[in-house]
Specification:
The protein is mainly alpha-helical and 384 residues long. The chain is 65% helix and 1% strand. β1 and β2 form a beta hairpin.
Length: 384
Amino acid sequence: MNLSAPYTKPGGSVAQPRERIIAIDALRGFDMFWIAGGREVLLIAVAAFKDPAPPWLAHQFEHSEWIGFTAWDLIMPLFLFVVGAAMPFAFARRLEERQSKGQLYAKIIRRTLILFVLGMAVQGHLLDFNLATLHIFANTLQAIAVGYFITAIVILNLGVAGQLAFAALMLVAYWLILRFVPLGGFPAGALEEHANAALAVDQFVLGRFIDGTNPPYTWVLSGMTFTVSVLMGVFGGELLRSRLSPRGRVGALTAAGLACLAAGWAWDEYGGLPIIKHIWTSSMTLWAGGWCYLLLSLFYLLIDVLGFRRWAFPFVVIGSNALLIYVLWDLKSLNPFPMMSKALSGGLAAHCGSAGPFLLAFTAVALWWMILYYLYRQKVFLRI
């Protein structure tokens, strides 16, 4: 792998597998499944046998209040990571098609703008047409837009060594700002829910249109580490494109995952920077990225190396149209599936006792999955 040359053409010492890495689609679909009703299906199913659900399980499906990390906190970092993992393959394909850098930049800008506006529509209340409820920057799609935009520029102009150096610079710079720069009247090093440097930047830049959650998530300054999350996915994608043997790729991904987990833990434990998803701290970025690498390694081993593909097919279907289901499910005013589920199976659910809620939740998921399956069979994929 050429570590110094910018990503300007395919070939060289990097393998260019023509086949699609199914693990990437499956992992993307796995992530979307939990967002679009899978969480409810699992928790309701468990509650049917043990109500309430075990505290440890319920805890893992809730966001950490501030410091700490749960399985549910991994959903958004994994989304950003998988976007990055697909980028080396997408850019190689476009360069093989002889697209110029100018054409690539135009597509990058177009995709960034569409993602940002979709994020405003989904969670920023854009479609309310009411300035009082509008949040300009408050959604995962917008975090992806920022991370994708900066990452795309980086990988088009820097080799892998430069990309690694850039990622390290972003992590360290963000840590230094959070720990040692007083902003917005907050003292240097403040990492409280309503007092930290990232929040001060959001308050200054976004003003009245700031994220409305409590405790607030931060977005503008956190774009530095959003970018690193996407870049970590790029590094995973580059490993999958490398001339390493398939099992060598699994080993490299696993090693990267364990190294990131160790670094994130050490930064939290000894570096004075807790794992806080709300402000996307550098330690959290590494910790979440470590789990992302391990998941990609596991999916790649099972699906693409060992050939166990049937179990992953439902996730592949979801992953092939992940953006569509994300927008449909999260845009509450347009989400028809719970209502359709009640219309189709509500009568039966009323006679199923404790299994009734599970039937309703499962039917909602089955409905949107069948739509995605139809689109998959017709080779209709939403691309931007």
